[in-house]
Amino acid sequence: MIERLLAYLEQCDKSKALLEEWLSHRIKLEAKLRKLARQFDKWELEFNSVKKKGSAAISTEAEANISAGTLLA
């Protein structure tokens, strides 16, 4: 009976160690994924900013060409 209890406790300890290892890897992986998500957010904001500036420049150029009576090439 005591041997079975000791075997059970040993398996509990092994399970606990595996769960702690899994949790440690999960936390590290989640941190890496959050870092990547922040980088994607930064790229998206930069892209949208450049896109808006580019659209504004094209719009301004188009308005100037229309006022001057010329067409965009």
Automatic annotation (TrEMBL):
Q: Which organism is it from?
A: Cylicocyclus nassatus (Nematode worm)
List each coiled-coil range.
Answer: 19-53
> Which keywords does this chain's UniProt record carry?
Coiled coil
Q: Does the keyword Coiled coil apply?
A: yes
What is the protein's given name? Answer: Uncharacterized protein
Name the domain of life.
Eukaryota
